[in-house]
Structures are given as structure tokens and as C-alpha cells.
# Entry
Amino acid sequence: ILLLIRNPKDVATSFYHFSNAMSPLPSYETWDDFFVAFMTKKMPWGCYFEYLSKWNKYADRENVMTITYEELKENPVLGVKNIAAFFGISLTDKELQSVVERSSFQSMKNNSQKTHGAFGSVLFRKGGISDWKNLFSEDQNEKMDKAFEEHIGGTKLGTKLKYEVYCKA
# Structure
């Protein structure tokens, strides 16, 4: 099982834009309205922190590989190598480069109309990291950090995310 996790602040930011672009989902007039809903577990797919907490009990199993979105953005070649090794797949240098190029956010975005039709432009917005800094107030940032610590701060997944997001930033 490959478990891909992401900075909860960027998850919230991304989901805010996604929700407002998808008519079947609730939309929010302001970021502040969305933030309250996100933090009070009023999301259609539940609470991201609870999701991470549930996965944490499986994180040490040998058939589970956890990788962060931030790791893949920082070093996609190493990320693909590690994923291939985890699944027992050997790749030539040419195959490795092809996977890295074809799985890049920009490549997927460029092909999104072909692969995802009309939803392509909604699913592939920016693909960056730390976009949360454009929306979060200082108070919201502190609330999110507190919720992170309460739910997953000392766990394996929490430690991995904290390292990738805070220590490498």
C-alpha cells in the first residue's frame, strides 16, 4: 500500500479551491467560512486529521510505504526510485526518467483534458506546496498547528509530515 500524505494546511487550501469549483460540493463565500468548516469536521469526506490518525496504526507495517507530497515535489527521481523499489519494480534510467516526466504535475495538468475530461481543470490547479501561506491568517495557522499536535503530533505520520513541512521549509 502506498500512502501519500500532504501538509494539512495545503490540503485545506487545495480543498477550498476544489470545493468552490465543483458544483455538487458545498461552496464557501470566504476562506474564513471554509476554514471553520474544515476545522470543525464539516467536510464531505470527513476530517483530514482523523484520516491520518486512522492510517497511523498501519504506518509501521512492512506492506505500507508512506511518502509525502512534499518529498515527491522536492526530489521526484528519488521518490519514484523508492516507490519502484517498494513494489519490487526495477526501472532502467530511461524508464525512471519517463515515469518522473509523465507523473509530474505539469505533465498531468497538460494532459488533464484527455485523461479527466471537463474535470481536468478542476483537479489540476497549481500542484505546488506552501500555497496555504496565501490564505491562512496568523490565528488560523496557530489553530491548525494546535490541531495537528493534538491529533497526530507524536505519531509516525505526524513526525514525517512535521519533518517534511517544517524542518525542510
